[in-house]
Amino acid sequence: xxxxxxxxxxxxxxxxxxxxxxxxxxxxxxxxxxxxxxxxxxxxxxxxxxxxxxxxxxxxxxxxxxxxxxxxxxxxxxxxxxxxxxxxxxxxxxxxxxxxxxxxxxxxxxxxxxxxxxxxxxxxxxxxxxxxxxxxxxxxxxxxxxxxxxxxxxxxxxxxxxxxxxxxxxxxxxxxxxxxxxxxxxxxxxxxxxxxxxxxxxxxxxxxxxxxxxxxxxxxxxxxxxxxxxxxxxxxxxxxxxxxxxxxxxxxxxxxxxxxxxxxxxxxxxxxxxxxxxxxxxxxxxxxxxxxxxxxxxxxxxxxxxxxxxxxxxxxxxxxxxxxxxxxxxxxxxxxxxxxxxxxxxxxxxxxxx
Length: 354
Hints:
The chain is α/β, with parallel strands linked by helices. 52% of the residues lie in helices and 11% in strands.
């Protein structure tokens, strides 16, 4: 992959415009400061908040949803503070020696990523009732690197996917939306492990596709690149709009995308960039159980979580994809696989309904 201007392979960056030293210092000066202020305020007031919420829930909400959410929020803040503090200690260990980009440093940060994600999901299990089961977990034990194409059904997908895959010994690289840089842990640790924070609203995505390709290249045998091909979380309104857009821009995909009911059509550009840069095997990561929650009220009404989160992993050996396929044929194959994803979601969402 080369740029038209230089003819040389450009250096990988974590995002376009958001990963300069000035941008990081400006952003983190606000987000890290706000994190510690909110953490100390919440934990200082936590006893009073719990007493008031318990009284309210005892009278109005026998599921104790408000109390559960307060406990989970306090736990989340604690994990964020621990994550930022651990990242600072790792910087002290590797930064002065200019080894932040070393393999040893990246492995330590991958462990931190796993502990952070696992800590948050464990807290969610004990407070808001998160539960999950997994089908096909053996996919992650196959030899060699993986490209994970994951369904994007809720705001917690990146966290849950990180906890699931890291628990099986995989070091992860993610393609994530740049808005997640507002989370201090994702921002700091995410800039020390290869990740790409994409601008979904970019009018010219050529530079971003180059960087996604660079991110996919050079995957180690214990690494996996995680992409959410839909590009955004599912909703019925988004589905109707996406199907209409695909039919207008790419009529050859209209028949396949028009069959979708429970997932969004794939936005193929990022996935194609990753597949062209790596010969890693492909794993489709599907799940049901937690829909998108757009407001605090919806979250409160959903707690404690009644449905069990169910994952299904399916391995596709790279040898099943012909190197002679055109880009259009590869997109057709992806759309066909996504129809099967859609069928599984539709069937299992009905079975999981309370």
